């Protein structure tokens, strides 16, 4: 593969991370592709604030579990979005791509989430226990999210800009996305905040 193709794939990969992070309510601070090392890129976002657990009562443990589940689901989907966007762009099964780092990190987060569930359920019954094949479920949901025309259009617009500029900060990301009309023809980011 040529350097230009690697840079383009990386731009889509990082743009998908950014769009899914925004969708999950994270503040994306920067996104970049490397022109010197085609195939390398990054997306940075602000972590969610942790709430303090006032006391280890069954009610607060249940609330902590739901918040933990939401946080990990979002972070796993963000990780899966990059490789899934490459698979979509190349019309190739995910398993045939070389983007293993994000997939392995998603797997580690999932295993950590299982450990947290086991630990918390020692103290009380927790709502929404993890179903079987949960990581596959998150993969399908992320693929479906990227399959939404408006979301994919945002990924494409951000990737095009990223490929041309190689680095975008939060304000530049917002400016690119605000130029995309929603399904009613209005400019804005409504699709990300449903």
UniProtKB/TrEMBL annotation:
Gene3D superfamilies: Peptidase M41 (1.20.58.760). This is Peptidase M41 domain-containing protein. Coiled coil: none annotated. InterPro entries: Peptidase_M41-like. GO terms for biological process: proteolysis. It comes from Thiohalobacter thiocyanaticus. GO terms for molecular function: ATP binding; ATP-dependent peptidase activity; metalloendopeptidase activity.
């Amino acid at each position: 593969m040529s350097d230009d193709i690697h840079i383009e794939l990386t731009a889509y990969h990082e743009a998908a991370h950014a769009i899914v992070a925004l969708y999950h309510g994270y503040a994306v601070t920067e996104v970049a592709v490397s022109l010197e090392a085609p195939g390398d890129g990054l997306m940075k976002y602000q972590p969610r604030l942790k709430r303090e657990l006032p006391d280890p009562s069954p009610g607060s443990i249940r609330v902590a579990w739901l918040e933990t589940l939401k946080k990990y689901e979002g972070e796993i989907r963000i990780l899966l979005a990059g490789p899934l966007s490459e698979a979509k762009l190349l019309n190739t099964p995910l398993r045939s791509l070389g983007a293993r780092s994000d997939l392995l990190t998603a797997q580690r987060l999932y295993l950590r989430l299982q450990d947290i569930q086991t630990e918390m359920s020692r103290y009380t019954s927790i709502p929404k226990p993890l179903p079987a094949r949960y990581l596959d479920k998150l993969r399908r949901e992320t693929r479906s999210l990227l399959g939404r025309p408006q979301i994919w259009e945002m990924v494409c617009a951000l990737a095009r800009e990223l490929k041309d500029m190689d680095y975008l900060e939060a304000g530049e990301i917002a400016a690119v996305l605000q130029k995309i009309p929603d399904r009613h023809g209005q400019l804005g980011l409504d699709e990300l905040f449903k």
